[in-house]
Amino acid sequence: MAFLPRRNTFKAVLGCHNGNHPHSGRKLDMFGLNRSVKARLAASLGLCIVLLIVVGFMGLMSTRNSQEALENISQKNVKPLTALAEVRSELLRSWVRIVAQQADRDSSTVNELQQKLDQSNSRIDTAWQKYSTGIQSEREAAEANALHEHMVELRNSIERNVSLMAANDFDGARQHSIDTLSTQYNQLAQDIDALFQTNNRQADTSFQQRSQAYATTRNIVIGVIALSVLLAMALAFWLIRGIMTPLGKAQEMAQSLSEGDLTSRIDITCRDEFGDMLRSLDAMRHRLTEVVTSVQRNAGSVQIASREIASGNDDLNQRTQSQAANLEQTAASMEEITSTVRQNADNAAQADTLARNVSERAREGGNVVSQAVSAMGEINTSSQKIASIIGLIDDIAFQTNLLALNASVEAARAGEQGRGFAVVAAEVRNLASRSADAAKDIKALVEESVSRVATGTELVNRSGQTLEQIVTSVKQVTDLVGEIAVASREQSTGIDQVNTAITEMDSVTQQNASLVEEASAASRSLEQQAEALIREIAFFRHAEEVGHPQPPRAAQPTQTRAKQTTSTHAPKPATSHSARATSHHSAKASAPAPRNTSHSEVEEWESF
């Protein structure tokens, strides 16, 4: 308390007087500063805010001036210099291109050179337009006009030089460059250098002006800051002197309360917010006396309730452990079921694989039968062709026999002269007859073979149809086995999830058992804390009959706040999840707990 003044020095200033100085502090009362700390703080803070606004406004003005200076330098010096640099760069690039073209001595690329020169001229015009908008003085304008005239002359000379190169007169173009272009380009470079120097001088002048303005603004801001600091120190000293006196009384009251003395009183004479604070402290002392008395009466009830809660928690702990054992057995059974279902799923997958292999083999057999049917059809076709050929041979033999018969008749008519011919005709008839008999036999055999081939073809077709039906059936079996395999996998996944859920339930049950044990320990700790509370509450000293203190200004009655506190801290049934919080809130209970509430809590714990 280094700033704590003597008690009788500033009572008039604070409104904390004892009637001996009725005329002191009258000037402050005229402004309402003697009756309200809020008014004093508002006045002090208002003055500080005004000073801050002044300083900030001056800083903003200085910043704005600096911004304007920077913008002026950027718009009127930096950007024009950049534009001049671009003009110089484009002119140099054009000069280099002309020299390179003269060195190449290729008239076919003059048009390309002219296009590049036109592009450079366009960029030069754009840069010159940017520069001309930032001219600041008549001298700079004169230098700029001279530069523009020389630049026009240089362009005309460049066009003349390009026309000479287009006419394939490279020697003349080179001589023209030496005599005219180099002189004009050097003059143009000197003009650009002069404009650079002019802009640099203008930038230096602007910098000196802004530096002087900055120094003036800086001195003014320093003076205002110094004045603001002095005023702020004076206000701080005045506020500290006006605040520490009532805080000293509040400190005395707090010291008495910290020593357990609830019988001390405060002589309150202040008329401001600090007076209200002191009255509230006195009301708090009175209320604390009531709370201590109530806590002493209810600590025994809390101790009994904590014992009953501990008993209920022990019973709940036993039942929770039994439930955990049952869940462990269930989890073991589910693991066995999971293993069995997983094995069934594996078997179903193997059966699915075998069924797919059988289906593939049946499909291959069907393809082989189809090929056999095609081969039998080709054999049948060939047999029919053979039968046709044999029929043709039979017809030829019949015709040969007829011809031989005619030849015999003609030989008989010829007599002795045709006897030899008759013998030959007879032999031919014998051969034709034998050929006809052989053809008939072969035809009979071929017809029998064709009949058997047709029968075989029909049987093969039936076999193919049967194999197709077998393939279809095997495919259906494969689909069913695949569905069984998918269902087995889904069943295995579902049982795994059920097993995981049971494992989690087992873990949660174990955690619940741990929480119940913690709740039991917390209830026992609550009992110990209730005993400690009885010992600690004996620290406070208070009278048996407590009087009502003077209520503070604009405050609610003490009895109303007592009812609100009683309703706020009414005891609630404890649960296993709030066992730890019970000991903390029971230590803060400020109203007596009825007996029937304690019995209802015990009944709820027993039913749980």
TrEMBL record:
GO MF annotation list: transmembrane signaling receptor activity
Segments traversing the membrane: 41-60, 220-240
Subcellular location, principal: membrane
UniProt key word Methyltransferase: no
Lineage of producing organism: Bacteria, Pseudomonadati, Pseudomonadota, Gammaproteobacteria, Oceanospirillales
Protein name: HAMP domain-containing protein
All residue ranges annotated as the T-SNARE coiled-coil homology domain in the record: 457-519
PANTHER family named among the record's database cross-references: METHYL-ACCEPTING CHEMOTAXIS PROTEIN I-RELATED, PROTEIN ICFG
Sequence ranges assigned to domain HAMP in this UniProt record: 241-293
Subcellular location: Membrane
Region (Disordered): 546-608
Highest taxon above the source species: Bacteria
Species name: Kushneria phosphatilytica
GO CC annotation terms, alphabetical: plasma membrane
Keywords from the named record: Membrane, Methylation, Transducer, Transmembrane, Transmembrane helix
Methyl-accepting transducer domain location: 298-527
Similarity comment: family membership: Belongs to the methyl-accepting chemotaxis (MCP) protein family.
One of the GO BP terms on file: signal transduction
